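Final report, closing paragraph on structural work. Over the funding period we assembled a curated collection of sequence-structure pairs, and we close with a single example.
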Amino acid sequence: MVLEVSASPKEYFISVTVSLKEIVDHLNMAGDESSAYLNRKTGELLMLADEELSAAEEHNDMEDYPEWQREWIALGRDIQDSEDYVELPTKFDVAPAT
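Its predicted structure, as stored:
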């Protein structure tokens, strides 16, 4: 599947190939306390816990977190500071109507 996503507020598009199955898998893996993101330029799919996203947003001291979590917080800061990422809807946003 080829998705055309806006790379910036300007009127141009970058096409990246993204597997719909991978998107669905990410949506299914995401819990109530995590968010999935798509990198508009690379097509990379990422999932971050709300805890890491909150720490990134609040610019908490990285020394307060274990090494493994620091990497995720740094990634959260990249996501928040860049227009390259778009947040995907949650599985609840795309759940079929009953």
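Residues 1-8 have pLDDT under 50 and may be disordered. Residues 2-87 form one domain. We thank the funder for supporting this effort.
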